Amino acid sequence: MEENKPKTGSFALKFGGILGLVGIVFAVMLYLAGMQYEQGWQISVINVIITIGVITWGMFEFRKANNGYLKLGEAMKIGIGIALIGFIISMAYQMIFIYVIEPDFMTNVLEVRKNEMIAKNPNMTQEQVDQSVEMMKKFSGPGMMLAFGAIGSIFISAIISLITGLILKKDEPAY
């Protein structure tokens, strides 16, 4: 019976691909709506809801394929795997978007953030504005986006996987 056990990796790959594609569709929708520079909490909440939904779906499907059983460790592997695969696919699209589709994206983002900062802090001196913009430039490059995105993805997916895994887990009876 052990040889028929489904592999967590195949579920992570399949549902990670789904998460990545849904993330791309959401990003394209934001772009078409002219909201690609938005950073509101609503967009973050929608992204987290999508992630929770796909991770939960992947765990349900694994449990169904595994005769109704799911261990917490399997849930963690599946959830974090889904998030990492989804992140890789989404970042690949993001790099294509930044370097091919809209090459001025990073410049425009910095300008939008600078204008938001000035609007919130109208008493800032030009020197303070320039220093803040330089700091933003350091943290907005592709390498930093990749690093912060990966860390955030692992952290959030670990929490989601732990909670969902605790809810969905069902250990096989010991014989």
TrEMBL record:
Coiled-coil intervals, chain numbering: none
Keywords associated with the record: Membrane, Transmembrane, Transmembrane helix
Top-level taxon in the UniProt lineage: Bacteria
Transmembrane regions listed in the UniProt entry: 12-34, 40-60, 80-101, 145-168
Protein name: DUF4199 domain-containing protein
